[in-house]
Amino acid sequence: MLRKLIRTTEDIANTCYVAKDRLEDILGDTEKKIFDIVQCNTSGDYVPIKEVVLNALDKIEQAAKNKGSVTGIPTGFIDLDYKTSGFQPSDLILIAARPSMGKTAFVLNVAQNMAFKENKTVAIFSLEMSKEQLVNRLLSLESKVDSQSIRTGNLSDEDWSKLIEGAGIIGKSHLIIDDTPGISINDLRSKCRKYKLEQDLGIIIIDYLQLMTGSKKTDSRQQEISDISRSLKEVARELHVPVVALSQLSRAVEQRPEHRPMLSDLRESGAIEQDADVVMFLYRDDYYNKDTDRPNIAEVIIAKQRNGPIGTIELVWLPNYTKFANMQK
């Protein structure tokens, strides 16, 4: 390892002497090389095919012993976990919807289950809401106190007791919230490498993709989004964690009679669909149709799943707590 470190530092020094790339790119590349050494997992290492096959058979045997069990990180939504077997390491998972469908609420539900119940380190990069706003939502979720009461401070003694208990659970968790506005993909990658080394990072959540900044100058916003989505997939593979990215949908959804989203509605870049291992849409009919016979029912439409089935599952929407819940069977 020392020889590898010496060679790497020499390469880094040579790169700096003849630097043609931007400083940000050089720093990112340097950090990755050092990170790979620390992880003893340098990119491009040769692994015998026999070892790969044996590892695959071990996983298949484990799955056979635990039929129906979740192999990834459980989301807490029973039907969704049945379809996906949880969020899988190295997957880029895209969750898209029009505004006000509950994208942030959905991923906070997922973060709540993974951080508080599964004891995973969850990093949330919130580019739209402040960390204080997210914590208020989490307090409402965990304590089951009306979110409006929390905002206005109109709380009963019982509410306060619930909030204090909920705050204790949140405070003990391995939850990281970064609300840096317009964070660049390079900064996000750098922070997540640190979290992986220091806190055994379990999952990354980004709210939302279109508010991020790319790693290099591009001719169009579409190219920049393509660069971001491709880089997020690279982060997922490098750190071997699920990366969940929220995304806005184009207005085309609003301009047709059938408002359920489709893959073609992904905003600004078809590369998002190509890079993602899983694409899910959120849809609530009562948002468009006030006379619907199914109020407060949300659909999670799995439109793409590289290694599993597609389909739709239903959840209950609880607006007072900005919360999704499992359907009662």
Q: What name goes with the CATH superfamily of the domain at 72-130 and 174-326?
A: P-loop containing nucleotide triphosphate hydrolases
Structural class: alpha/beta
Write down the overall mean pLDDT: 86
N-to-C SSE series? Answer: HHHHEHEHHHEHEHEHEHEEE
Strand order of the largest sheet: 3-2-4-5-1-6-7-8-9
**In terms of per-residue confidence, which ranges show pLDDT below 50 for 5 or more consecutive residues?**
none
How much helical structure, as a percent, in the residues?
A: 40-55%
Number of helices: 12
**Between the first and last Cα atoms, what is the distance in angstroms?**
55 Å
CATH architecture of the domain at 72-130 and 174-326: 3-Layer(aba) Sandwich
Structure in words:
The protein is of the alpha/beta class. The protein has a domain at 72-130 and 174-326: Rossmann fold. The protein contains 12 helices and 9 strands. The chain has a 9-stranded mixed beta sheet, sandwiched between helices. Helix 5 (103-117) crosses helix 6, helix 6 crosses helix 8 (157-172) and helix 9 (185-199) packs parallel to helix 10 (221-239).
List the helices and strands and how they pair.
Blueprint lengths: L1 H16 L5 H16 L10 H17 L12 H7 L7 E6 L5 H15 L3 E6 L4 H13 L3 H6 L4 H16 L2 E4 L6 H15 L1 E7 L13 H19 L3 E6 L22 H5 L2 E7 H4 L8 E9 L5 E8 L4 E4 L3
Parallel strand pairs: 1-5, 1-6, 2-3, 2-4, 4-5
Antiparallel strand pairs: 6-7, 7-8, 8-9
Helix pairs in contact: 1-2, 2-9, 5-6, 6-8, 9-10
